[in-house]
C-alpha cells in the first residue's frame, strides 16, 4: 500500500515507520524540516517537508494514498485546532483508510477499561472525543481509532519521568502517591498493532493499544529506585503537588487505569511480546543520561 504517515520522526511514528517499511509498504512521511527529511530518507520512503496544518498539502497527500496513519500532534494548546483541521483535510481527499491515534486517557480512571468504557477525560485531552467521533463516522472511508496507553521502550516516552524523578535521602520521589495504575504498551508492540489494524480492522472500530500489564507507579518507582542504588525506597508525592508541579499533564498521570486490550487480540490477532515496563526499568533501559 501507499501510506501517508505523520509523526514519522516522533516516538510512536518512528516505530510505525519502521514497521511499515519492513512490511513492504511505500511510505510518504510528512516532516517539518529538511533536516528531518534527510534523517529518515531511504528505500521505500518519500519525505515531504510541510506542516499538518497546511490543508492543501494534506489533502493532496491523502488523495494519492491508500491509507493515512496519523501519529502526530503539536502536543500543546494548539493541538485541538490542529488535529481538527488535519482531520478535515484528510477527509476531503481520502478514499481509503484513516487510522487515527487517540489515547486511553479519554476514558478516565477505571479498573477494567475497554473500548466501550464511557468517556471521562481529564482537561488535557477533553478535546479529543469530538475529533475521534467525527473521523470514526465519516462516510466513504475506512476509519479506525487506536488508543494507546502509556507508551514505553528504548528509553523513551513518559516513563523517563519515573527514573528522572527527584532523588532524596529517603528514596526516589513518585508521581503521585503511588497507588494509581498505568495501562502500558511497548512502542514496538504498538507499531505492530497499527499494521494489524491496517490489514484487518473494520470501519468505525476503536482498539485500545495496551499490553494488559498495568503496574502501579509505586511498583515502577521501586524498580527505578533499586536500579539507581536507592534500595527500592520511594517517597510518595501528594497528588495536589503533582498537579502543581506538572500542571494538567500531571493530572492525567494521576489517572488510575487498568485495561487488558482483549479486543485487539480477539479481532486483529495482535499479541504483545515485549518485556514489561518494570522489567525495562530494572534492566537499565531507562537509566538517566
Sum this structure up briefly.
This protein is 38% helix and 20% strand. It contains eleven helices and 14 strands.
Summary tags:
three-stranded mixed beta sheet, 14 strands, Rossmann fold, 289 residues, 11 helices, 38% helix, seven-stranded parallel beta sheet, alpha/beta, single chain
Give an overview in words:
Helix 4 links the parallel strand 4 and strand 5. The chain starts with a strand and ends in a 7-residue tail after the last helix. With 289 residues, it is of the alpha/beta class. It has a 7-stranded parallel β-sheet with strand order 3-2-1-4-5-7-12, sandwiched between helices. Strands 9-10-13 form a 3-stranded mixed β-sheet. The model has no long low-confidence stretch (mean pLDDT 96). The chain is built from 11 helices and 14 strands. It has a domain of 189 residues: 3-Layer(aba) Sandwich (Rossmann fold), CATH 3.40.50.720. The radius of gyration is 19 Å and the shape is globular.
List the helices and strands and how they pair.
Layout: E1 2-6, H1 11-22, E2 26-31, H2 34-40, E3 45-49, H3 55-63, E4 67-70, H4 79-93, E5 97-101, E6 110-113, H5 128-136, E7 142-148, E8 150-152, H6 160-163, E9 167-168, E10 171-173, E11 184-186, H7 187-200, E12 205-209, H8 217-227, E13 234-235, H9 239-253, E14 257-259, H10 262-268, H11 277-282
Parallel strand pairs: 1-2, 1-4, 2-3, 4-5, 5-7, 6-14, 7-12, 8-11, 10-13
Antiparallel strand pairs: 9-10
Helix pairs in contact: 1-7, 3-4
Pfam families: Epimerase, NAD_binding_10
Organism: Actinoplanes aureus
GO molecular function: aldehyde dehydrogenase (NAD+) activity
Amino acid at each position: 500500500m501507499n501510506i501517508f504517515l505523520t509523526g514519522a520522526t516522533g516516538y510512536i511514528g518512528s516505530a510505525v515507520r519502521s514497521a511499515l517499511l519492513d512490511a513492504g509498504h511505500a511510505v510518504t512521511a510528512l516532516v517539518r524540516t529538511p533536516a528531518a527529511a534527510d534523517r529518515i530518507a531511504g528505500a521505500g520512503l518519500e519525505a515531504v517537508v510541510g506542516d499538518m496544518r497546511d490543508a492543501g498539502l494534506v489533502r493532496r497527500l491523502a488523495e494519492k494514498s491508500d491509507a493515512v496513519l496519523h501519529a502526530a500532534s503539536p502536543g500543546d494548546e494548539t493541538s485541538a485546532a490542529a488535529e481538527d483541521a488535519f482531520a478535515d483535510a484528510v477527509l476531503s481527499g481520502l478514499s481509503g483508510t484513516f487510522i487515527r491515534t487517540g489515547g486511553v486517557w479519554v476514558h478516565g480512571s477505571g479498573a477494567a477499561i475497554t473500548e466501550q468504557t464511557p468517556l471521562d477525560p481529564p482537561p488535557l485531552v477533553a478535546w479529543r472525543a469530538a475529533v475521534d467521533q467525527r473521523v470514526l463516522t465519516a462516510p466513504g472511508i475506512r476509519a479506525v481509532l487506536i488508543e494507546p496507553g502509556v507508551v514505553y521502550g528504548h528509553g523513551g516516552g513518559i516513563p523517563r519521568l519515573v527514573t528522572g524523578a527527584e532523588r532524596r535521602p529517603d528514596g526516589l520521589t513518585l508521581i503521585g502517591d503511588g497507588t494509581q495504575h498505568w495501562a502500558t504498551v511497548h512502542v514496538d508492540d504498538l507499531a505492530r498493532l497499527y499494521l494489524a489494524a491496517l490489514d484487518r480492522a473494520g470501519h468505525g472500530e476503536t482498539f485500545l493499544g495496551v499490553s494488559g500489564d498495568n503496574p502501579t507507579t509505586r511498583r515502577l518507582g521501586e524498580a527505578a529506585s533499586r536500579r539507581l542504588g536507592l534500595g527500592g525506597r520511594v517517597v510518595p508525592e501528594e497528588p495536589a503537588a503533582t498537579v502543581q508541579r506538572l500542571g494538567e499533564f500531571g493530572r492525567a498521570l494521576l489517572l488510575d487505569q487498568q485495561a487488558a486490550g482483549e479486543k485487539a487480540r480477539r479481532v486483529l490477532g495482535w499479541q504483545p511480546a515485549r518485556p514489561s515496563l518494570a522489567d525495562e526499568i530494572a534492566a537499565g533501559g531507562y537509566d538517566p543520561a
